[in-house]
């Protein structure tokens, strides 16, 4: 039985949901931080983009892992 074909859609969905939640939290906290200290907007925006890039990279890794063939027992 080929499990990769059955697990891949689940991994796609979980990766998309996880990265969507992660990016939402990152952007929300950045907006909150800029509202508190507007003079740090440039530095916070840079950190926000780094956080978004790392979150999306984890999404792509999760999608790639779904296609790794595991040996049958």
UniProtKB/TrEMBL annotation:
Which InterPro entries does this chain map to? ATP_synth_csu_bac/chlpt, ATP_synth_F0_csu, ATP_synth_F0_csu_DDCD_BS, ATP_synth_F0_csu_sf, ATPase_proteolipid_c-like_dom, F/V-ATP_Csub_sf
Domain of life, per lineage = Bacteria
UniProt key word Transmembrane helix: yes
Recall the GO molecular function terms of this protein's record.
lipid binding; proton-transporting ATP synthase activity, rotational mechanism
Residues flagged as site, Reversibly protonated during proton transport: 56
An example Gene Ontology cellular component term from the record?
Answer: plasma membrane
Q: What is its main location?
A: membrane
Recorded hits in Gene3D superfamilies, A to Z, give: F1F0 ATP synthase subunit C
Chain ranges of the V-ATPase proteolipid subunit C-like domain = 10-68
Q: Does the keyword Cell wall biogenesis/degradation apply?
A: no
Subcellular localization: Cell membrane
The UniProt transmembrane annotation reads: 6-27, 47-70
Q: Which PROSITE patterns match?
A: ATPASE_C
Q: Which Pfam families match?
A: ATP-synt_C
Tell me the membrane topology, using the record's own terms.
Multi-pass membrane protein
Keywords from the UniProt entry? ATP synthesis, Cell membrane, CF(0), Hydrogen ion transport, Ion transport, Lipid-binding, Membrane, Transmembrane, Transmembrane helix, Transport
Q: PANTHER family of this UniProt entry? A: ATP SYNTHASE LIPID-BINDING PROTEIN, MITOCHONDRIAL, ATPASE PROTEIN 9
Record's function text: Key component of the F(0) channel; it plays a direct role in translocation across the membrane. A homomeric c-ring of between 10-14 subunits forms the central stalk rotor element with the F(1) delta and epsilon subunits.
Membership in a protein family: Belongs to the ATPase C chain family.
Concerning NCBIfam families, the annotation shows:
ATP_synt_c, PRK06876.1
Q: What is this protein called?
A: ATP synthase subunit c
Gene name tied to this protein? atpE
